[in-house]
Structure formats: structure tokens, C-alpha cells
Write a structure and sequence with these properties.
This is ABC transporter permease. This protein is mainly α. It has helices spanning 8-21, 23-51, 57-62, 64-67, 70-80, 86-98, 112-147, 152-166, 169-183, 207-213, 217-254, 257-264, 269-280, 282-298, 301-306, 312-321, 325-353, 355-358.
Amino acid sequence: MTTGTTSPAPARAGARRYRARSPLARYLVRRAGTSVLLLVGVTIVTFTLTNLVPGDPVSAALGEGAAQNPETREAFIRSRGLDQPFVVQYLLYMGNLLRGDLGTSLVTGRAVTTDLATAVPATVEIAIAAIVVSLAVSIVLGTLAAYRRGLVTDQVVRVVTLVGLSVPTFWLALVSFYIFFLQLRIAPGSGRISPSITPPPRVTGFYTIDYLLNGDGVGFLDAAAHLALPVLVLSLVTIGLLTRFIRTSVLEVLASDYVRAARAKGLSGARVVLDYVLRGASLPILTVVGVAFGALLSGTVLVESVFSWPGLGTYAYNSASNLDLPGIMGVGLVVGVIYLVINFVVDLLYGVLDPRVRLA
């Protein structure tokens, strides 16, 4: 005999089965929620620190002459909401931000979003190329040094990486520019492309990719040649960091029982390295790669200055030099988002590579 009511037991059982079937989905939802909260924190920190910058933003925006006029000054303050309490200013900023409005740059006179849409792809292009080159070289050198621990090969790799970590980035950039461009003439000058080359139609913002999509081989080769020196400088510095870390991680895995068991089964050296050693060391390597990539994206100002590369670092320097508060806040927000996205991707890859992470 039925009672006319549905037992909640099947519903609870179904929910338990769903949760059991989708641990990765639950893991990603948790990480996404954390990232949203951190993004709000980034906006608070960025807005607060930017408004604590010493100087007079009104004079920087209007110029000393116009800023001396009380009526002009008062009108500017009212139009920007600078006469409102700090909390109200932040809420106004967040309202504009949710509409995609980061304000107008005081240096270029354009919308900050327009400037960042040009600067960010320029930096991402060299950062991606540098991290790919660095990771490929570092995996080989770090694994080789670990396998040849204490031998000549290991000592040479450690010395080379130590030199790479010790040399200042700006000095390495200057020396590279002087040798390869001024002396040997085998590398092009500064900028993303030569003055005689027309920029490609914008698709991705990456000149090399956009030239390929447009079928322009001459433009692609020119953009790739201009990309070579900045990538070389950034890669040499990053290789030193990654190689030493990979060497340490591989050494720890080599001492594990499952690697010794794989060798005892008679597996080939290449298979042991790829299927056991590098896979076992992948999580710590992934962490340091994420940190290195974030540093490349947010800390290339010196390299960009030497090579006149119109990227995020150059834009940040110009904004800070001219007290361009909308530009400074835009750069700070972009850098914060970059690290949040990188950390989210690293967390995602953690969950894919190691089921224990997503089940935690």
C-alpha cells in the first residue's frame, strides 16, 4: 500500500551518485568560486593602493595651468567622482568595471581597455614563446643533470643555470641587443615589426599568428625575427630557474620505489623517463612553471624597454611615470587576473593529473 508521498531516499541516493561521478566538476566549481572571491579582493587592493599613490591626479590629468583654475579643477573632480567618499568611489569603479569600462588613459587619451587590448597580446606573445622554449630546454637539461648526478654533465648544467639566474635581465637584454643587432647585424632592431612592414589584420593580437592566418609569409618571418631576441633573453633567465627545480624534482622521483620497480622489469630508459619519472615529477614542475609564466607576463618591463616592445610592461611604466591612475589600475587588474587565471589552470591540471587532488 502506497502512502502518496515520495521517499527522499532515492533523491539522496541520486545526489550521492552524481557527486561520486563528477569529482572533477565539484573540484572545478570550488576553484572557480575561490577565484571569483580573489578577483574581488584584487579589485579592492588595486583601487586602494592606486589611490594611495602620492601626487595630484587632477594636475596630472589637466596640466599645471588648467589645474590652477578653481572652476576647471572642481568640474573635473565632480565629473570623476573624486569628491565622493572612498567607498562610493570604489562602488562607482566596480559599476564601470562590470560594464567593461576601465576609464580613459591620461597619457594616450584612449580608453584603457583599448590600450590594454594592444599591450597585453604583445606581452603574452613573447611570454608564451619564452615559456615554451624554456620548458623544452629545461626538461632535457634538468633530467640529464639528475641522471648524471655528481658527474661532469651535472656540474656543467648547474654552473650554466647558476649563471643564468645571476645575470641581471636588463644587462642581458642590452648585451644581446648590442651584439646581435649593432655589431653582428643578424637580428632586426626594436619593435614588433620593421617600419616597412604593415601590421596584420587583427585577429588574435599575436602578430606571428595573425600573419599566418592572413597568409603573409613575409610579415610572419619579420615578426618572428623581432620576437627572437626578447624571447632569447627571457628564456635564458627562465631556463636557469626551471632546470634547477626540475633536477631536484627528478632526483626525488628517481629514489622512489615504483621507479626502481620499473627498471627491474626491464623497461627501456626512455619509457621509464616519460611514463614514470617525468609523470611523477609533473605536479611540482607544473607549479613552478605557472609561477614562472606569471612572472614573464607581469615582469617584462625591462626587456620591453630595451627592445621597444609595446607590451604591458611598457604601458605600466608609462602610466606610473605620468601618474595615469586609470592606466595604473587597469594594469594592476590585468596582472591580478593573469595570476588568478594561471593558478586556476594549474589547479585544473592538478585535478586532471592526480585524482587525489580533486577528491580532497
